[in-house]
Each structure stands twice: as C-alpha cells, then as structure tokens.
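Help!! Second protein's tokens look totally different from the first
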Amino acid sequence: MIWRRIEMPASSTFWELHVAIQDAFGWLDYHLHEFEVGSVAIGVPDDYAEKPIVPGWSATLSEQLGKVRTCSYLYDFGDCWRHTIHLEEVRESDGGGYPRCLAGENAAPPEDCGGVHGFQELLDTLNKPRSAAYRELRDWMKNRHAKVYWPFKPQAFDPAEVVFHDPAERLAQLDA
C-alpha cells in the first residue's frame, strides 16, 4: 500500500490539493486529473470531457468535503492512478505553513510506468537484476524519462523530504 497524509487548510481549493498530492507523490503533473465528490467532477475543464467539470481552482475543500468525507482522485487517465481521499478531521489552524506531509508509506510509482499492473511488473523486474528487462528498466529510470527515478527503493518514503510547490505558479503554467 502506498499512501500519504497531507494537512491543508479547509479554505484550500481542489487545485491546491491536486498540486499537494503531486508533490507528495513526487510526480511531474503532466497528465490530466479529476476529483469525484459525489456526482460532481472537479479538475481542469476540457472541451472533450463527457461531463461538466468544475474548475479545481474555484472549488474549495470546505464547500465540497463538508457534505461528504470521502472523494476520489484520478491522475493520468491512461495509467489510471485512482486514489481515495479521506477527510480525517477539521481543526483550527496552528498558524504554520501549509500544506504539510505528515506521514506516508512506500515510494510512489514512477510516472508513466503503466498503472497498477505496470508498477507490479516494474517491482518484479527489479528482483531480477541479471535480466535484460532489468537493464532496460534501469536505463529508462536513469536516462530516458523526464525524471531520474534511479535507484528506485520501493519501501523508501520520508515525509520530511516532500517539497511543496506554489499552486499559483503551476496554474500559470497551465494557462501558458
């Protein structure tokens, strides 16, 4: 199981939550995403979407998650990384910097590894260091990807190493 516990202000938008999730998983945020809160789809509006999508930067966590305590987050419609988001509690701010990654477990799958089944194949291949598939995977993780994922340590995760980026800057890149 791979999970993260992130603390955010209730006034945060779903766009800010999306950026925090991307940062907590170390992903590159170059695929589409969508939150489903009940029957409401929240994300980046798309002319080709089959249903209406509420812009993530205009929907706050407090207005949507006040009605339900769980929603789903889908990232990369091809690899289909589906997450379940649980609102654990709402409490007063302590005035500290947000978001915060409080806890988590295991390294996130490398971006574009092929979803759950591709990630399982990746883990299986890492256990066969003398194989041609291992060398090919190692080269892909070292040199042929937009991010260096080598050496990959499946059990490694330290919440203190998560660096959160500015969601406004990320949104400006989306508009560019």
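Here's the second one for comparison:
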Amino acid sequence: MLTNFENLPDDSRIWIYQANRKLSDEEVDFIHQQTATFLEAWTAHGADLEAGFEIKYNRFIVIGLNQENASASGCSIDASVHFIQSLQKQLGVDLLDKMNVTFYHGEYIAYKPLLDFKQMAKNRSVSKNTIVFNNLVNTKAEYLEHWEVPAKDSWHSRFLA
C-alpha cells in the first residue's frame, strides 16, 4: 500500500539506493512511476506493506516501510531488490553498489569509488567537515537527522586523518 513518505512514522525502516550518476528529470519521472506501482502492490506473506518513497537530488531513491502493521520478510525484501535491479537494467545506472561514496564537493554532489574517496582524504581534498551521505541509516528518523552529515560523524571518518 503506497502512502506519502512524509506520513510514515519516524521508526519506519529505510533503504537508500544511490545512483552512480545524476539522473535526468525524465529518468526521475520514470522511477517515480515505477516505484509507485511497485510499492502499491508490495506485500509480505499476503499482507499489504505500507510504504512510501522519495527521490532526492535526482540521485537517491529512498524507500520507507511502516513496520507497525506488517514487516518486510525475506521474500518481500528480495522482491524490492529485484525491482531495483530492473530499474538499473532499464536505465543503465548502478543503484546497488555500496562501495561508493557520495558527498558534497562545493555546491555539487560528487560520487566516487571508495578507493578514490580514501585517496582524496589522504590528499586532503576532503576533510572531516565534508558533508557526506550516510546511506547506512536504518530508520526515517535517522535519515532525517543523520543522512547528510560531516564525514567526522559517519562511517566515512575512518578514512580521514
């Protein structure tokens, strides 16, 4: 069952998929339509899942699930991953590689492989105050408060001097 992302409770489970490039407005419209259709029919053991989503900065797909009524099962999580894989294939974009870092480089959002980000930290091209996207947040509350944070406040800090 599709609901507005804003209406999900703060303890809703969150999954964040980052694109390896900025998506065009047409691609965002396509993702919006496809994700709404998927979430409208998403179930776990026959029970409707109350879920919502948003697409941020033409780069991130954020799916939230209210677990008060029904929680995602292994099969329903697999279905969501298959859905994201189908988007990847249709759009020619990578959404599942967790070994990449997205961060602000000035006013722009940059996307780098983890090894490149480590090298940038070593070269002091990024600092502990560089704003990074912490895609490891688990709940809507964490997403709202701790998704865009200085690198020193996220798992990225281990790469900074």
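Reply: Different proteins will give different token patterns, so don't panic. The CA atoms of residues 19 and 95 lie 5 Å apart.
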